[in-house]
Design a protein that fits this description.
three-stranded antiparallel beta sheet, six-stranded antiparallel beta sheet, globular, mainly beta, Jelly Rolls
Length: 114
């Protein structure tokens, strides 16, 4: 099963999904970033595949390159940014009791999605 959804910052593909786990491939366009957000019912594990990422998590800044990963606990405020001129690609593994796209609390968003 592969499902792709376009977003203003890039796109994501769902590579695998079953109860309590979802795996996505996510592309962030150059100069774009996802909203500052949190999730009440899931945690996420991000592994950088291509490009360089700036990850904000609970007021800490992390710089990641390919083959590096970061764990995002549920309820943590987080975002990923691509400050470069090349595409950023990462794999996101979601785990939790509910994995719906509506489990997002947005605190800041460049595209006014609240």
């Amino acid at each position: 099963m592969k499902y792709r959804e376009e977003r203003p910052w890039g796109w994501f593909e769902i590579l695998y999904e079953e109860d309590h786990i979802k795996i996505k491939k996510i592309l962030v366009k150059p100069g774009k970033r996802l909203s500052l957000q949190s999730h009440d019912q899931r945690s996420e594990n991000w592994t950088i595949v291509q490009g360089q990422a700036t990850v904000i998590m609970d007021d800490q800044i992390h710089h990641l390159v390919p083959n590096q990963m970061i764990f995002i606990p549920k309820k943590s405020k987080h975002r990923i940014e691509n400050h470069n001129t090349t595409e950023l690609v990462f794999i996101e593994i979601q785990t939790g009791s509910y994995l719906g796209e509506d489990d997002i609390v947005r605190y800041q968003d460049d595209f006014n999605r609240f």
